[in-house]
Amino acid sequence: MTRRTNRRPVRAPRALLAVAAALPLAVLSPSAGTAQADEAPDDTRGPTALLSCSTGTDGWTGWADCSNPSSQVVAFRVVVVCGWWPDAYGHWVTLHPGWSGRSSATCGGGTGVGSVGWEEG
Known about the structure:
The chain is mainly beta. The chain contains one helix and eight strands. The protein is 12% helix and 40% strand. A hairpin with a 3-residue loop joins strand 2 and strand 3.
């Protein structure tokens, strides 16, 4: 004896398909999650950080503006994390006590800037 079933293919609502189609575009957008010309102080400095820095991005280029309130000479460079592309590093900038400077780097491709930080050395 064979069993007869009434099975129909399951179909997704059109609204769900539209959202699913747009999702990859939002994830791959270079400005997804970042504001244009975003300027924000970075509070992730370690205990040995001597510089006072703020970072920003326009979606493809990231920069760090730093000032040296210490009594020591300190060098720094920007570190830009690029989505689906190798990270970018800016040139080293040496700041004497009381000086300020900027280091910047640009993502050469991928999905643009994911985050911006700096290294002191």
